[in-house]
Amino acid sequence: MDRAGLMAGAVVSMWENLQILIAAPVFNAQLLINGLTVGAIFALAGYGLALVWGVTNVKNLAQGDFVMMGGYIAYELGKHGVHPIAALIPTAAFMFAFGWVVYRLVIRRVIQLDLFTSLLATFGLAIVVQQSLNLVFGPDVRTVNSGLGEIKMFGGMVEVTEIRLVAFGLCVLLAAGMVLFMKKSRMGQAIRATAQDARAARVLGVNTDRVYALTFSLNAAICGAAGVLIAMIWVIQPFYGIAYSVRAFVIVTAAGLGNLTAVIVTALGLGVIEQYSGFVLGAQFQQATIVGLLLAILIWRQVVLMRQRKALQ
Amino acid sequence: MKGITINSARLGAAVAAALVLAGPVAAGDDTITLGSAISITGKYSQEGKNASDGYNLTVKMINERGGIKINGKTYKLAIKYYDDESTPARTAQLLERLISQDGIKYMLGPYASGPTKAAAPVVEKYKIPMVEAEGASRSLFTQGYRYLFAALSTSEQYLAPAIHLAAELAQKEGKKPSDLKIAMAFENDPFSQDIRAGVEEDAKKLGMKIVVDDKLPRDLSDMSATLTKVKALKPDIIFVSGHTKGAATATRQMHEMGVNAPMVAMTHCESANLTGKFAGAAEGILCPTQWAETLKYKDDLYGSAMGFNTLFKKTYPEYNIVPYQAAQGAAAVEIWADAFRRAQSFDSEKLRDALAATDMETFYGHIKFSPAGNNIAKPMVLRQIQGGKYVVVAPSKYASDPVVFPRKPTN
User: Fold this and answer.
1) Which of B195, B170, B172 is nearest to B184 (CA)?
2) How many angstroms separate the CA atoms of B352 and A61, rounded?
3) Are B388 and B243 members of one domain?
4) Residue A257 scores a pLDDT above 70
5) Cα B213 to Cα A10: distance, rounded to the nearest angstrom
6) What's the structural domain count of chain A?
7) How many domains does chain B have?
8) Which residues of A touch B223 (CB under 8 A)?
């Protein structure tokens, strides 16, 4: 079979898959629900990254590894009889403390340095987290059982696990909580002030070092919560974090910093696009589609920027 | 005292050198020494131990029965081992050493396809025959190697028996095999793609239509998009192979999404602990295996597959179940013994030709090599999860129970 024949075969099967969706729209519902429910979890990791990036200007490459770590904490607590949904709070608390320690030990020292140093530092952090999880829990794929059942819709054509819907609801609650915290609390205001202009904030009496520490810890806690949900819906493995780091970066790059609504919309869209590309193109193209989209967004941004520069000249 | 040690060491070296020069027998006048660089430490240490325990048991059994008679004289068997640390580069180095320094002229394989791939060119260079039992990759037998022989079934045969079983069942129901639709999801790695190639080839031969053909990523955590497609297209057979995570994710998500087909076959059922973790959801899944102790294979040395099983557990009480790697290893030594008996010679070329002409029944299955050196006589065996246990259902000649078809998962 020559390459052209294979290509033609791939195009035919793509076309056939598209026709299924048109002929039997009910399968769109399955893809949409699956996509939106995991997209909500991606939104958590994406928002955490946007927060840290916007406030401290550190691009945290260990984002996905924090997610995995959260999953493993829930797994460990589960072995001691803690229900995974109840494990959300202790996991987030532990990850908050972990984030604080990491900030004190590593992030604080690289925050004022150039981009390359902070990237290297968080990359190293990612490796340490991965290998530690591997040492403690081993390389096997793990899941945490929520004990919930499935819901059948459209006469059994669409089946969704209840945990997905519960996770979606929890994500909405967490996001709402974050918005309230950032808008109403003194600390939230301080974080936003530091993000706008750290120097001015310092002059006006904001302890920016504490703001940085809190932001980083908050992000770790959010990631940890996302990890608990991932462990119940999908699987966790010490080296699977990178997939979540990539997704978080795609979301933040596309949505921009400091815009929660855009982050949520992009994350939900990402979840849905992954499902559709898996259905139409095949599982082998799911990740490629995401990276391809990121590339397209970056090129488009560049074009827009160039136009603006021309207008300024 | 010191002087004596040096002298005896020198003497030993001289004797060893003389023996190497003399040719056939390396370790003593009445001993045939086989060589193997195998994983004693490193990531395959457990599997390496399984395999070498199998090697050792057959050596012990043959020696207890008086050894091998060649030209009227009986010889005992022995094995010289080195630890390849589970790394292919080390395997190749140690084979060089076994051949050129230790004068070993009869090899047994290392553990896993990677080290075997590294070992094959070395034995080929020195024209030393090697019987391996632990490297299943198809690519080992496409290189034109003359001195490599494998006791086990190669990877492309792993899931192919399920296709033939499906064709058989379809004919019983009055359907044509070419009416059957197949959905498959294989990981994008050489091993799983080998398995996929075997499935594709047999599906084409029988005229079956492949309606889903997805490649799973290495960091697989979600198959829901693929499974939605499967649900829409209602195939007759679902094939999945993606190591442990593939079996676990597929079983779990098929259950969650209510996806099913009359026949579901996947690899790595045991390592994913399907019967333990997904008891109801895994019911009726077909899993291939190289060997099972319940098979009706027979030979003189062990009696039967069950005979090997019992004796192995008695000899090595640390095992709760007998791993198939041990059975394969034990069979490899039987193949060597058979070749010596038929060749009545210590000449590598004559032994190679004797190995190539092997046609024997063992407790591990029938052994007969293709010109490429892989065993074409032993089929992969399919077991089905029935009531939380693995029972052999195909090929029908060896089946202990009938297959449950169509598959019905329980909740």
Assistant:
1) B195
2) 56
3) yes
4) yes
5) 10
6) 1
7) 2
8) 283
One domain for residues B274 and B206: yes
Answer yes or no: do A278 and B233 touch at CB < 8 A.
no
Q: What average pLDDT does range A22-28 have in this prediction?
A: 88
Give the chain A residue whose CA is nearest to the CA of B258: A159
Element (H, E) at B166: helix B160-172
pLDDT at B20: 44
Rounded to a whole number of angstroms, the distance from the CA of B172 to the nearest CA of chain A is 30
Query: DSSP letters of B304-371?
Result: EHHHHHHHHHHH-TT-SS--HHHHHHHHHHHHHHHHHHHH-S--HHHHHHHHHT-EEEETTEEEEB-T
Predicted local distance difference test score (pLDDT) of residue B411:
60
- Evaluate whether residue A286 is within a structural domain: no
Asked if B233 and A156 come within 8 Å (Cβ–Cβ), the reply is: no
In a domain, B193, yes or no: yes
Shared-domain flag, residues B166 and B268: yes
Nearest CA in chain B to A28: B228
What average pLDDT does range A110-134 have in this prediction?
A: 93
In this prediction, residue B5 has a pLDDT band, given cuts at 50, 70 and 90, of very low
Q: How confident is the model at residue B384 (pLDDT cuts 50, 70, 90)?
A: very high
Residues in chain B, overall count:
411
A-chain residues within 8 Å CB-CB of B231?
27, 30, 157
Cα–Cα distance list, B145 to B23, B123, B128, B190, B373 (Å):
24, 9, 11, 20, 8
Reported as a pLDDT band with limits 50, 70 and 90, residue B16 is very low
- Residue B300: both structure tokens together: 């003189």
| A281 part of a folded domain | no
User: Is B400 within a domain?
Assistant: no
**Mean pLDDT score, A171-180:** 91
The domain containing residue A186 runs over which residues? 39-255
Question: pTM of the predicted model, to two decimals?
Answer: 0.82
pLDDT number for residue A131? 92
- Say whether both B256 and B331 belong to one domain: no
Percent over 90 (pLDDT), chain A: 68
| Any B CB within 8 A of A288 CB | no
Flag whether the ipTM exceeds 0.90.
no
- Is residue A40 a contact partner of residue A168, using CB atoms and an 8 Å limit? yes
Q: Which domain holds residue B111?
A: 19-153+294-368
How many pairs of residues across A and B have Cβ atoms under 8 Å apart? 90
CA distance A262 to A254: 8
Q: Is A298 part of a structural domain of the chain? A: no
Shortest CA gap A231–chain B (Å): 10
Same domain, B216 and B174: yes
Listed by number, the residues of chain A in 171-230 with a beta carbon closer than 8 Å to a beta carbon of chain B are 230
Question: Has residue A210 got a pLDDT over 60?
Answer: yes
Q: Which of the four pLDDT bands, split at 50, 70 and 90, describes residue B337?
A: very high
Domain-embedded: residue A74: yes
CATH of the domain at B243: 3.40.50.2300
By CA distance, what is A160's nearest residue in B? B257
